[in-house]
From TrEMBL:
All copies of domain APS kinase, residue ranges: 324-477
Binding site residues for ATP: G332, L333, S334, G335, A336, G337, K338, S339
Protein's recorded name: Adenylyl-sulfate kinase
Annotated metabolic or biological route of this protein: Sulfur metabolism; hydrogen sulfide biosynthesis; sulfite from sulfate: step 2/3
Organismal lineage: Bacteria, Bacillati, Actinomycetota, Actinomycetes, Micromonosporales
Residue ranges occupied by any ATP-sulfurylase PUA-like domain in the UniProt entry: 18-106
Top-level taxonomic group: Bacteria
Reactions performed catalytically: adenosine 5'-phosphosulfate + ATP = 3'-phosphoadenylyl sulfate + ADP + H(+)
EC number in record: 2.7.1.25
Length: 503
């Protein structure tokens, strides 16, 4: 798809919007031609038909709705009847224009949100991104493929020796060139960042038969069958004639190759079809949990199972826990003792020198990072997200972030957990579950008294709810524990979990 040169003033006058990550992934696939025959985001009839029957309104098979939904403030600036106001400029997260969608249809799909349907055209090429050289269009990939059969492989996980044996066997059986698709639209099922997955696949490339590797922003939509059908469609558009099955039902656009089960043969150190290896002589593939346990403990991955180059990439992405970044989020009512315990843990780490820690106290962050925010639910969420972002950056670089906000809402605490995991860090939720009555008795800042008097609106525990965690990793009650005892419990938890050797 060629770039679209917009008339003067369009970028200035047309509304713009940054789609959510899944929509940006769909946009890239639309622009590259990987979603052919689609040329834009689906409008009403097509979207409804795909959701109901798995085909476009004209009967063309298509497995999943590819839609764009915008908030009302963006929709109000669009007018399908006016040429300039019909265009919506789509930008990347940094605000750079990427594409324009011609809004042929605007439909409210839920309160305050509207579906925009219409064709898309590229208005600017992506300027950066890890492994941009691997994000080739289907046309570019097809032009470089050899004649004959092409075996598509969707590599959603690192390739260990069992998977490499399956790919090699399937390619030799049908006499095919291998085309490896590496999804880069988000973390892997094991939580690996997309760039880590790409590096691990490249590390195994010398053990794959002649292959082409391409990065595609394919994300799971939570439906195994539809995910499989969509992957088959994309693989076919890139030139694959066959697809190595991943367990999902696929068909129609491509032929499916079912991989054989392989086992390691202790007699000669080779991976062979399972039936060819006597039960007493075989070793089977390690589970993801077993692999992660070895990495967490800093133990080497066995070479019989994982090529050394792949193991090196996995060790870089998942260092031992005592070296890995960690976000420690203390949540609880005002006066529960969160900040006191967090500072005590930080002091202990400073004294030992074993790990570097940064303390992000709720009140301090309010003054330095979130000045101007109020205490509405939206502002509370925004404050916690800011804390989570900074904490995740600390974890990204191997530090420990000690966060002590109230964090009253479960949804936002879960977002912070996801932020930590997205950068390869760990997350521990500590519920400082000191009872409300005890917190109110302490009332060091006089806030409960003001809240009871109606002077502090939306005060957690009095006029605003506190959603007690159901997923806390550790629970403390400072009405029953001294500060020293609470700090010791946290440190013991970190030692037992492997994040500290000792304190």
């Amino acid at each position: 798809m060629t770039d679209w040169v917009l008339p003067d003033g369009v970028l200035r006058d047309a509304p713009s919007y940054t789609p959510r990550p899944a929509e940006l992934a769909d946009l890239e696939l639309l622009l590259s031609g990987a979603y052919a025959p689609l040329t834009g985001f689906l409008a009403g009839d097509d979207a409804a038909s795909v959701a109901r029957r798995g085909s476009l309104a004209d009967g063309t098979p298509w497995p999943v709705p590819v839609t764009l939904v915008v908030p009302v403030e963006v929709a109000e600036r669009l007018d399908p009847g006016q040429p300039v106001r019909r265009l919506l400029i789509l930008t990347d997260p940094e605000g750079a224009p990427v594409a324009a969608v011609e809004a042929m249809e605007l439909t409210e799909v839920r309160d305050g949100w509207f579906r925009v349907g219409g064709p898309v055209r590229r208005v600017g090429a992506p300027e950066h991104g890890a492994f941009r050289r691997l994000r080739r269009t289907p046309e570019e990939v097809r032009a470089g493929l050899p004649d004959g059969r092409v075996l598509g492989v969707i590599a959603t996980r690192p390739l260990h020796r069992p998977q490499l044996a399956q790919i090699g066997n399937a390619a030799r059986t049908i006499g095919a060139h291998v085309l490896v698709f590496v999804p880069v639209a988000g973390p892997t099922p094991e939580g690996l960042a997309p760039e880590v997955l790409v590096r691990s696949i490249l590390a195994a490339s010398d053990r794959i038969p002649p292959a082409t590797i391409v990065a595609v922003p394919l994300a799971s939509r939570g439906d195994e069958v539809r995910d499989g059908l969509l992957r088959a469609r994309v693989a076919a558009n890139y030139g694959a004639t066959h697809l190595l099955s991943t367990g999902a039902a696929v068909g129609g656009a491509i032929r499916v190759v079912v991989p054989r089960d392989f086992a390691y043969d202790n007699r000669d150190g080779q991976w062979r079809p399972m039936d060819d290896v006597p039960p007493r002589q075989r070793r089977t593939a390690m589970s993801v949990d077993d692999i992660n346990d070895l990495l967490d403990r800093g133990s080497p991955l066995p070479e019989w199972h994982t090529p050394p180059a792949v193991a090196r990439e996995l060790r870089k992405a998942r260092p031992p826990r005592h070296q890995r970044g960690l976000v420690l989020l203390f949540t609880g009512l005002s006066g529960a003792g969160k900040s006191t315990v967090a500072r005590g843990v930080g002091d202990a780490l400073a004294e030992s020198g074993e790990r570097r820690a940064t303390t992000l106290d709720g009140d301090v962050v309010r003054r330095m990072l979130s000045a101007g925010l109020g205490f509405s639910a939206e502002d509370r969420d925004r404050n916690i997200r800011r804390i989570g972002f900074v904490a995740a950056e600390v974890a990204r670089h191997g530090g420990i972030a000690l966060c002590a906000p109230i964090a009253p809402y479960a949804r936002t605490r879960a977002e912070v957990r996801e932020m930590a995991h997205a950068v390869g860090g760990d997350f521990v939720l500590v519920h400082v579950a000191t009872p409300l009555a005890v917190c109110e008795e302490r009332d060091r800042k006089g806030l409960y008294a003001k809240a009871r008097a109606g002077m502090v609106p939306a005060f957690t525990g009095v006029t605003d709810p506190y959603e007690e965690p159901t997923d806390a990793d550790l629970t403390l009650d400072t009405s029953k524990l001294s500060v020293e005892e609470a700090v010791e419990e946290v440190l013991d938890f970190l030692v037992s979990g492997g994040w500290l050797d000792s304190v």
